[in-house]
Design goal:
This protein has 351 residues and is an alpha/beta fold. It contains 13 helices and ten strands. It folds into two domains: 247 residues, 3-Layer(aba) Sandwich (Rossmann fold), CATH 3.40.50; 82 residues, no CATH class. Helix 4 packs antiparallel against helix 10, helix 5 packs across helix 6 and helix 12 crosses helix 13.
Length: 351
């Protein structure tokens, strides 16, 4: 019978890493813990859904001999001005370290930075990640190290590892990416990536969307989930049997098609066009949210604010830029219309 992360912690609490070596389930557990606030341990109102489970997981871990570690060098940085959301922590075990990068939080800044991946060769969080990992190697020279994270944290783990000196890369045992987005094509041509690509352990659920964004030549293992559609991104839904994830033969065909459509559309646009669309989309959300804070809440109020915001943004955009944005939005709408059946299936599964 399949189990989950909570049951895994219970069943392995007395198993040492000599008896059961550190692997991807252990990595996902530590990745979940990285979502906990490093200073204020209370559950915040915005921490809804599976992120609340991280607090319960921490309580389970405290009774486990297997997960006997100290927490070192936690760091959190947010800067809306340069669209940066970054957090990392080092779990210090007797025989190895696990450097973990947090995934996206609930802020607009965090999500904007994720979308910037489609046109930026290096986002601010990636810069911070490679500096953080380098610092850990300076503090613990020649100590065995695992690196990982869930969602954007997995992307940061790969990026940071690829940009380390060769003498540090030697001590990286494995890099875990749990349903994290991939990279722009140029990244896969870099020498640093070639040095660590065989150490990457990427896991994605059957209905993965985020984990296949910009996907090119990474190998991955598909994991069975107890949830459905986009909700399979929830790490607590990933199923375990015999102390390991239950694997599937492939991502569901409908999601392979959806990812192909998304990636084909993204790379059909010039870099500048991608940036314009992302900036326009998030400016629209931000301004609409700000208007709603000053008005009566409700769907009609939101649509009114949305319409007003579009008028404001149009007045600040050049005619040439507006035409490009309209062209590319229309292009996307035509793709969705053409693939109506495909996206209808996604919508039905998400309800």
């Amino acid at each position: 019978m399949a189990s989950d992360l909570f049951q895994y912690v219970q069943k392995t609490k007395n198993l040492s890493f000599q008896k059961l070596p550190f692997h991807s389930v252990d990595s996902l557990i530590l990745s979940c813990l990285s979502y906990l606030p490093f200073q204020n341990e209370e559950v915040h109102p915005w921490e809804k859904g599976w992120k609340k489970d991280c607090f319960s997981l921490k309580e389970k871990i405290q009774k486990s001999h297997r997960f006997s570690f100290s927490i070192g060098y936690p760091i959190e940085k947010k800067d809306p001005q340069i669209e940066k959301q970054f957090a990392a922590v080092c779990y210090i075990f007797d025989d190895f370290n696990y450097v973990c990068f947090r995934g996206t939080d609930a802020t607009l800044t965090g999500w904007k930075e994720d979308f910037n991946l489609c046109f930026m060769e290096e986002i601010p969080a990636q810069q911070e990640a490679k500096k953080y990992l380098e610092k850990i190697f300076q503090l613990f020279p020649k100590k065995k190290c695992f690196v990982g994270g869930h969602s954007k944290g997995g992307n940061l783990a790969i990026y940071a590892s690829a940009h380390q000196k060769e003498e540090n890369q030697i001590f990286i045992e494995k890099i875990f990416c749990h349903d994290g987005p991939s990279f722009l094509p140029r990244f896969f041509e870099e020498k640093g990536y070639a040095s660590i690509k065989n150490k990457i352990d990427k896991t994605i659920p059957e209905s993965s969307v985020i984990g296949l964004l910009f996907h090119k030549d990474e190998y991955y293992t598909v994991i069975k989930s107890s949830s459905y559609s986009l909700f399979q991104h929830n790490p607590f839904s990933w199923e375990i049997e015999n102390f390991d994830f239950i694997s599937c033969s492939s991502v569901k065909e409908i999601y392979l098609k959806i990812n192909h459509i998304i990636n084909t559309y993204i790379f059909s646009l010039e870099k500048e066009e991608r940036q314009e669309l992302v900036d326009f989309f998030f400016l629209l959300i931000q301004k609409t949210q700000n208007k709603n804070k000053r008005k009566e809440r409700g769907l009609s109020s939101w649509f009114l604010s949305f319409a007003e915001t579009i008028k404001e943004i149009r007045s600040d955009v050049s005619e040439e830029k507006e035409k490009r944005i309209q062209k590319n939005v229309l292009k996307l709408m035509n793709i969705i219309k053409k693939e109506k059946e495909c996206f209808s299936t996604l919508e039905k599964e998400s309800k």
